[in-house]
Structure formats: structure tokens, C-alpha cells
Amino acid sequence: MHLWNMFVAAILGLVEGLTEFAPVSSTGHMIIVDDLILKSNHLYGVEAANVFKVVIQMGSILAAVVVFWDRFLNLLGLKKNITKEQLYGERLKLTQVIVGLLPAAVLGFLFENYIDSHLFSIKTVLFTLVAGAILMIAADLLRPRRPKTETVDQITYTQAFLIGLFQCLSLWPGFSRSGSTISGGVLLGLSHRAASDFTFIMAVPIMFGASFLSLVKHWDAVTAQTIPFFIVGFISAFIFALLAIRFFLKLINKVKLIPFAVYRIIVAVVLFVLFVYQ
Question: What's the pLDDT tens digit per position in 136-186?
Fold first, then answer.
């Protein structure tokens, strides 16, 4: 076990954990940190590096499951001690989550090969970083003065479906799943916290499904040599995603989206200078 390799795994897990659920594009950050500085594909090969990115994403997914554990139990009908008000009153339903997932799941299935072949490049990520920032700024400027939907339990089926359509934008690498869906939710009258909660809940099944399929596809890269590398990255991503999600959910109603949009534009400028303007 090389210490440098474990350091690389821990740093990439940190980057993944801190950026996966914030509306700043984890893809853009991974390009800067991994492709430019750490170059994990040189350690065990390109296929192992791709599997590693799937593994650390699953660490982030697990963190979201932990944060929303009671909510997922509730959705699956497994939570005990549910009051009559919770049972018959306003409550986010599993069918609403499914409705929100359908648009991106269908488009992702149909265009997976095209996305992998044509949209994973520096220039496309640059474009979507800026486009996503513009959407986030527009959402904050055009949102209703008073949200119609204060909590995630008040989301309607129509809102869930329309937020799902916004999530389709995140199929283009660099757009950011949370950036597109939180913006869409805010434009549809959700509070920033309600839009964030729904975004993170939807992210778990769609990210887990995509990660699981990718892991099965590249299972040959999982060897006795790479497993310690994967484990360190997974643990790092889980810990930092757990911290980032809790912090973000406390922060989002106060700072809104524009500060994150400005940060995205800064990341785009850095990418342009490092990779394009040479």
C-alpha cells in the first residue's frame, strides 16, 4: 500500500464529498483536482480510475441515506410510530419521488452512450458551468417573493414532475444535479430548503442505480491491489459528504443560490485558463 496512493484517494474522496450535493459541479472540480494535479488514472490504469470515481460517489450516496434515513423509512412505509396526522396529512410520497425521477432516468437510459462519448470534455463542462450559474441566478431573481411550498412534504405531483424535467439538464456533465433541480424547484415556488431536500432524496436512487451499473460493467478493475485505494476514497467521500450535506441544508435558506453561481463562474474561468487558454 503506497502512502501517496492513499493520499490521492483521500483527497479525491474529499473533493467528491464536498461537491457532489452542492450546486457547484463535482465534475468540474474532479477535472481540476484529478486530471490536472493528482492524475489517479496513472496509479492503477484508466479503468480503475473510472471505477474509483464510481466508488467515491457511492460514499456520497451513503451519506445522503444517513442524513435522510427517517425520510427514506417513511417513504418505504417502514418507519414506526407514525402519527395519524403524518399518515393522512401532508407527507412526501414515494410515488412523487418516482415521478420526479422518471424524466432523467428515461433520457439517461436512451442517451447514455452519446453522453459518455461526446459530452465529457473540458469545453462542454465549461459551457455547462456557466449555463448552470445563469440558471441559478435567474432562479433567485425570478422566484416568488413568498414560497408556495415551504417544506418537502407540501410538494405536488406536478412540481415533482417539472423538477424532474429540470434534473434532465444534469445529464450534461458540469451542469450539476443539485444546481439544476434546486433552481427548478425555486422557480416553481418551493423554498430553497424544500427544493434541496427533494433534490437530495431524488439523488439517492438515480445515483445509486447509475453507480451500480457502472461498477458491474467495470468489475474487472476491482482487484486486491485496488481495493485499499477504493476503501480509503469511499470512507473519505462518505465523511465529507455527511458534513457537507448537513452544512448546506442549514445554509441554503440564508445564502440562496447566487453565491454558488458566482463560485461556478470562477471555477469555469480557472478551467478555461488551465485547459483552453494555453
Answer: 999 999 999 899 999 999 999 999 999 999 999 999 999 999 999 999 999
C-alpha grid cell, residue 101:
425521477
Beta bridge partner(s), residue 149 = 190
Q: Quick one: which of 239, 160, 157, 158 has its CA closest to 197?
A: 160
The torsion angles phi and psi of 149, rounded to 5 degrees, stand at -120, 105
Of 272, 105, 136, which is closest to residue 202 (Cα–Cα)? Answer: 105
What cell was used for 122?
A: 473540458
What does the alpha-carbon distance between residue 95 and residue 84 come to, in Å, rounded to a whole number? 20
String of DSSP letters for 54-93: HHHHHHHHHHHHHHTHHHHHHHTT--SS--HHHHHSS---
Tell me, what DSSP letter sits at residue 95? H
